[in-house]
Amino acid sequence: MTEVSFRPTLTPRCGPGPPNNPGHRDVVLIGFLDQGNLGMGYLAAVLLQRGWSVDIVDFRDGPARIADQVERANPLVVGFSLIFQYFLPAYRDVALELRARGIEAHFTMGGHYPSLCHDEVLETVPELDSVARFEGEMTMLELVECLAAGRNWHGVAGLAYLDGAAVMESPPRPLVHDLDELPFPYRSGDPEEVLGFRAFPLLASRGCARRCSFCSIHTFYREAPGKVVRVRSPQCVVAEMGELHDERGARVFLFQDDDFPLWGRAGKRWVLELVDQLHALDMVGRMIWKISCRAEYVEAELFATLRDAGLYLVYMGLESGTDEGLEVLHKQISVDTNRRAVELLKQLGIMFEYGFMLFDPSSTFASIRQNVGFLRSIVGDGSAGATFCRMLPYGGTPIRDQLRAEGRLKGDVVRPDYDFLDRRLNDYHSQLDKATAAWIHGHGVSHQLNWAWNELAIAERLAGPLDEAESYREALQALTARCNQELFQLVEQSSLEAEADRRTTIGGGPVAMACEKHLAELLDLRNNFLADNQVRLLGAAAGAEVSGPIMQPQIF
Ligand code: B12
To answer: Which fold has domain 190-531?
Structure first.
């Protein structure tokens, strides 16, 4: 790509089409727009930069409304962005509706699952003309250029398509070599807001050097030719942050990198340069940021420097509380290292969140209790809401292949699943999952607690000292600790009962009642605290052009 670097694409360019057909767009991109969608943003930015018009449509609008929008646009190409594989059947419904309305545009689909399981996707969604594999910016651009010129598109690199029953693949598309050459992602719609402070996702790098068995990121980047891990220059990242701040009122940046560039000496140099840039451009104090990284990168001195430059939240995929579990998940890390990272972050006053797979294919009743013991050791003090999930064998992951080879793979694209070695765990997991869904999934207790922690961290850093902050923190921590302990006890006790083949005491009813009680208490605490500080918060967020009242009756 030869276009200039750092070219802004923030101002909407999806303006009117040609005078005789103002609704027309060359491309319509359809995807899940919760918390933005950087994949679609990058695709749109590259197309817009080359002069093509683009509409971005939220997949959550449903088939009929999406079809209305596509009909109006009458595009050359409809691009479906599938980031969660379990949406595949719902995407098919959209494609069916579009074809039923007589829309004849070229339909293509991209994302991790389509890239890695293109044959399954082409089979499940026969309305597609092609699947765009791996990073899609240049593939999409060339596809549009080809179709507009009426040329045969089968030779465009990075595509898969059906020829009768045969799955055909065009030459592979190399990964983008220099990320700085990409324009900044186009951002449609309103950003997320936390207490009136605007939050934007962004990326400092792409790819992951690790090979966790449950993750498809590394297979996604390794199957395509080119360098697996690529990092933007700190200058380019900070230029995007500055522009988002100036033009869109951004105050909170959520780095979505799979593994924020902190690895080894080069990583440290990179991040310290980023920090220098933030200071040099006077951005420290005006904006804060969140990263996701591996636990072994958390070092006291380095993270104190990052905290002082605005790092307020670190997400880590801790995943297991046993070294055997970490081995099965191929995390290449120890329980002790994970625990140390959490301790350090607590000492540094940096908020943390974590991913954790209470159940994995090697689970036993004993490992589940060990896992709970680990969780108790990190969040038993109420420093974060307890959360956990079951490892799911997503398409393109090494563990899916392994489970298939062992004859344990079950389920389908929506619910990929497997049998535990101790079959009693199959029933136990499904009972526990049902009973605790309102606690740990969706907007349950743990999510709401973490949201309240998130609000507090953001408010303290962006609005300065707040009234009663210390007593609110203490009350929030005490409530979080109580909730976590209750949840841990439930898992421990029920797992003992299930292991002893006794009737389990996990009752959905009592758990739902407990959730309601905890949520009411949390809401009360949090609303009182915010009410006490409303004026200061409104004032601090005013620079971000608050779009509505910050006091919400619900947390989130
Ligand atoms: C940000 C994010 C989220 C955000 C969503 C934001 C959004 N709407 O985009 C939130 C926080 C909501 C989220 C939630 C979840 N997430 Co998430 N998330 C991510 C994350 C970290 C980054 C996505 C991103 O911005 N990538 C950067 C862009 C540039 O890359 P990209 O999306 O891959 O797009 C490129 C290509 O794929 C391709 N492409 C994509 N679409 C298209 C379309 C066309 C037409 C073309 C040509 C090309 C193309 O070109 C793009 C540019 O190069 C990814 C990991 C990852 N690295 O992708 C996980 C990931 C997508 N999440 C995942 C999961 C499992 C979840 C959750 C289920 C977690 C949970 N247990 O709750 C939930 C589900 C939420 C729901 N409601 O169902 C999995 C999906 C696995 C799978 N196979 O389905 C991923 C891959 C992480 C992982 N390691 O497994 N997530």
So the answer is: pyruvate-formate lyase- activating enzyme (3.80.30)
